[in-house]
Amino acid sequence: MRTDAIWPVHTLVVRTLLKSDPTAEALLSDAHALGLKSVRKIERELLYFLEGKLAPAEREQLRTELLTDPIVQTGAWRDKPAKAPAGAFVIEVALRPGVTDPVAEEIVRCAQMLDIKGVQRAATGTRYIIRGALSPKQRTMLARRLLANDVIQRFTIGQIEPVFPHPAESSGQVERLPIRKLDDRSLSKLNAARLAALDPEEMRAIQAWYIEEDRDPTDVEFEMIAQTWSEHCGHKTFKADITVAGEEETIEGLLDTYIRAATDEVRAGWVRSAFVDNAGIIDFDGGNEVSFKVETHNHPSAIEPFGGANTGTGGVIRDILGVSAKPIASTDVLCFGPADANPDKLPEGVLHPRRIRSGVVAGIQDYGNKIGIPTVSGAIWYDPAYTANPLVYCGCVGIAPKGKHVRSPKPGDHIILLGGKTGRDGLRGATFSSMTMDAKTGEVSGASVQIGDPITEKGLIEVIVRARNKGLYHAVTDCGAGGLSSAVGEMGSRIGFDVELREVPLKYAGLAPWEIWLSEAQERMVLAVPTDKLVELRKICKIFDVSLTDIGRFTNDKRAIVRYNGITVLDLENHFLHEGQPVRKLKAVLPKPVETKAADAPRRPKVDNNAVLLKLLAHPNIATKAETIHVYDYEVQAGTSVKPLTGIENDGPSDAVVLVPAGAKGSKGIVLSVGFNPEIGKVDPYRMALSVIDEAVRNAVAVGANPDRISLLDNFCFGDPLRPEVLGTLVAACRGCYDAALTFKLPFISGKDSLNNEYIGSDGRKQAIPPSLLISGIGIVDDVFDIVTMDLKAEGSTVYLIGETRDEMGGSHFHLVQGGGAGEPAPDLPAFAPALYRCLHTAIRKGLVLSCHDLSEGGLAVAAAEMCIAGRLGMLLDLDDDDTTLALFGESNSRFLVEVESSNAIAFETCFTGGMGNFARRLGNTVPGRRLTISTIDETLLSISVDDMVKAWKGNVK
Amino acid sequence: MVPYTDNERRELSTMKPQALILHANGINRDIETAAALEKAGAEADTVHLNQLREGGVKWNDYQILVIPGGFSYADALGGGKLMALEMNVYFADQVREFVESGKPVLGICNGFQALVKSGILPGSVRLKPAKAAPKGKAKGKSKPKAKAKPAAAPKIKLSPPIRATLTFNESGKFECRWVHLKPVSQKCIWTQELEELVYCPVAHGEGRFVLKDSKSLNTLRAGDMVALTYVNPDGSPAGGEYPINPNGSLADIAGICNDKGNVLGLMPHPEDHIHQWQHPRFGRGEAGELGLALYENGVFYAEEM
């Protein structure tokens, strides 16, 4: 690619003076993991491209004062084409045109600050010097698979030419789509050509409306309708009429029938907002409200893991800002293919799970750490089904003073756009990522996936929190999926609006009006601001360098109007836009799960329990996630009490985290927990829903949350709902949600669905990912001084098993590592769970519990092992079960291991009233000697030293 | 106890040392830093550089200057680098006056990086001497509770100058984990006479303290400018061992002070441990080693000035 420079280009090459470069070393081991074993060494240098007329003294000043740290770096201007060093070759990588380069922007700004006026534009890149015998094909593979990501970066074997940002101007072009005269085939062609993903009935409804209006739509109108009616924004599957095979009654919307219905029936007094706002809102301490939202960003993360997870994190933070709350914590649950997947067997275009994992983790780390929100809670799950379709669930929690969130824009209010510039981000990612790019494409395509800009979003937090406190707006919402179209469209859905697109600040030239309207560019918020508050809002924005653009007014005529340069490019009736969508009609076939184990099923064979336990501890789903947790700043804001890692060495896996938000009165804490188990989903999606709700509740209860004060969030990642058997799993899971919520009398406050998560299986056919329902729990501890952690505290304590173990090992991790298990039922939810949790909670409030850990993947054996690991203490347990494999490794719900000081044993037991005493069994004691031993009266089932368990658990995974 | 009248309260509050916390785009530990200063007895104002540039804020109204943690300017071109540039370009005189007057100055994490990279602490550039620097209140009145009055700092000839920086962690990764810090410097007004270790988290990717040459280390040590080191829980040196020393810092250095002892820069976050419930083993009943002690030291010094 040729450079597009106008002025002279100065290239500075910066290399480290330090002996080692850990980033380069990590790349080397990744190259080897990719099968490129002949790579011997990788060195990394930074490239800065400065365009402009610069005097030698100015170059020297830039080099020494701005672009290098002379203690650890050395820099040299590249004035002649650089050759690769002898015995090495060079790959240079730079961003694609249109991808935001914040460092380059800072270089231009800082050069001005240093009074060097000549620097016009800047760009950055990376130079890799690689040693090792690689064929040209292998060099390209190294570049493509490891050093550059095609979606946002370009590379050259040898020296790369920079591309600089251009001044931005819209194309202003608007197309009219002659929809009225199209037949069904042409309608479907139009649908496909514009990637609208509408159903045929929906296309016909649009056509009918325009026939009545006696005109054809503009592209802006068509795109807005498609966006408003999309699965993502309209949730048409969750609102669809579903006919279930073998059932008479039609389900009139999964959301209304099961999820919202559960919330309505539970009628929890503390719920302030459920399924209405950008996030669910609950009461915290009377004076403050807490909000929580979880989103997914799966497909973007598959294509560009760093950017996908980065913007996923940024997106859900804006959801919290969209309810006027200050974000105080992030959560993330990640699903990847196996880290040891054979790179040669990956489907075409699929990134290796290791690369996806490292990119996703780095993307979350980058956004969360920089914006200053602690990343506190989550999970990582591995399954081959997630290789091509990873899952990235991002959550955010916020806090706001009671009643401060306003949500009614008034006619006459200014439509204020805050934050970043608008580009083609997120528009039709699929088409743009497959286009060949050259220097010109910056103008026509931009980049479909963007890297987020957490610093800009931090500015939005500063501004919105202050604007909220001063009552400067009537409504606020974030620009997420669907961009301005969705944000302004939703805000104005009851009154109407009139927008001028010419004012919207652009990243680069060439955007058409529909692209400006639909762009999903990050870090933008929309506010409805009364005229008399505008000056003050501008003042606040100026302090924090937040861009403010007045793009129009809310009106009272119930119409959506969009202009470009004064000319109307969109004129729609609110009623048609928001109510005109035909209800989807779908068919479902329910899965046939096993409910009880066959009476004549053979007895489980005896296994080497020590070996199985070590295998389970080393399984990547169970093994420590410390390496990931430590790259997230889980301490910023200073509110993290129970941390993701706990115990005597700060390395045990907490059941849930507890936050004490700054500014809240007293010592109340927020509990965040996770329930997730697609392994059970494969066996029985209904029971998976029961199980993960129980898991989220019991994890929260384990650290001290009040079991009657927990709210739930549901995030469904399923396959294509147009396939009846896939939709059947979704129906089953929703029914499980309803039943479990009613059992616990706990409400759902927010949820989201991501459907069409599919991949091409080894048989070449499309397959759905396993039903993947994430339940996030948010609870309250009334006093943070009552919290309990899962690490064993002392020798000589009494250990109890709370709950009941049933013969339901379907979907267990025992079978995952040992094989077998077909025809076994998945864990059910026992009816006694809520009563049992209240008893345990009473004991915790009375201070009778030293440690408490929930039983989940790997059952009793793994839970006991983790408690021993976290406390570096031993345990001696006695079982009287016939089926010892079931007792050790079964995963029945609603169970805990609890450590109680022996002198408190009686007091502890008396907490278990109303027949619950049967479910609190003394199993043994904690012992000196750092060894876990579990026996029956006849034999020792299992005996492993804590050191060996630590080794297995910390062994090989991140 | 009889509650204070409003007048009395106003009176009391004006006696509190006023702390100026610098805010900039990307600074994100300002709120907890303010909380720590206030808990330690100061009154804290967080002011954005843009507000300072507009004037209206009087530097002389403040007795303490703090640059908190975060990612100012996204850490573009190196952590703290552009914050340092902003300070040197727009506020060099005010900052110099603050420093030379002996008032307590604290840079935490990103703030430490900025202090080093601006040359306020020994770093990659040397702060140009003021043409007519106002005479500071100087040596500072010693704390009354001090058993021994710290000797007036001997003027060390910085020859060769100490050239230091903070760069990427040796692990190549961002590190969020709890560390034990040993207060070393008795010259540094923030660390002097702290007898207990400080236990608090680090959260950074660029915290590795590096010196240009080995002589600089001797100069730092001889000048009692090594303020805090990473140590084992029993107080013994980390000896470079990861993760006790979380970033590969030379000589386990977690923080340094200037020659005068009034400016401290450190990577860890003592402001994240001012309550008992923040202790990672609070659930085990462990307590103490609060980071608050360090803030109390600085605020107390400012009160006495």
Protein traits:
heterodimer; A: alpha+beta; Mth169, Chain: A; Phosphoribosyl-aminoimidazole Synthetase, Chain A, domain 2; 7-stranded mixed β-sheet; 33% helix; B: 305 residues; alpha/beta; Rossmann fold; 8 helices; 25% helix
Provide the CATH top-level class of chain B: Alpha Beta
CATH superfamily of the domain at 788-958 in chain A: PurM-like C-terminal domain
Order of helices and strands of chain B: HEHEHEHHEHEEEEHEEEH
Indicate the structural class of chain B: alpha/beta
Shape of chain B: globular
The CATH architecture of the domain at 788-958 in chain A comes to Alpha-Beta Complex
As a whole number of angstroms, the C-alpha radius of gyration of chain B is 18 Å
Which fold does the CATH topology of chain B refer to?
Answer: Rossmann fold
How much of the sequence lies in strands of chain B comes to: 15-25%
Strand arrangement in the largest pleated sheet of chain B: 2-1-3-4-11-10-9-6-7
Q: What is the CATH H-level superfamily of chain B? A: Class I glutamine amidotransferase (GATase) domain
Large-scale geometry of chain A: globular
CATH architecture annotation of chain B: 3-Layer(aba) Sandwich
What's the CATH topology name of the domain at 788-958 in chain A?
Phosphoribosyl-aminoimidazole Synthetase, Chain A, domain 2
Q: What level of helicity do the residues of chain B show?
A: 10-25%
- Largest Cβ-defined interface: A-B, 64 and 60 residues
